[in-house]
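Cross-posting from the chemistry board since nobody answered there.

I work mostly on the small-molecule side, so proteins are not my area. We synthesized zinc ion and want a rough idea of how it might sit in this target. Sequence and SMILES are below. Is it possible to get a predicted 3D structure of the two together?
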Amino acid sequence: MLLISCPNCGSRDETEFHYGGQAHVPYPENPNELNDREWAEFLFYRDNTKGTFAERWLHSTGCRQWFNMLRDTVTYDIQAVYPMGTPRPATAAPNAAESGTASLAADSTTTGTAGPSIAAPSTSATSITATSTTQSGTTAPEGATK
Ligand SMILES: [Zn+2]
């Protein structure tokens, strides 16, 4: 369960938000000049970053506003929340290491340790059960209501 800090509403539960994909993917200036491959890459190809990733989020059950977030895809640490249209904030160095992580043994070790640590920050067994209940709560409203 993530606690996401909406720039307009403050900290709210993850279930109030919708993920909107990678941030900073600009619409092509001249789409008609793109060939099929370039157009397909714009439409469908996104980075699959291990580590700090800039992504878009919508506070769908709150202020209904989009914003950007820097999140670590390994640890789920939210490093920054910033408005749409503003440049990605600078982050610490780990960015340089993350592009080559797949081939490095040390980093795959890091990944191995990161897995358990994702479960660990849930702070207690109660929040784990809370997560499982809210997940079923998350899927139910999509199919049932709205
Ligand atoms: Zn909001």
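Reply from a structural biologist on the board:
Welcome over. Reading the output above for you: The domain at 3-144 is CATH 3.30.2270.10 (Folate-binding fold). The chain has one domain: 3-144. Happy to explain the token format if needed.
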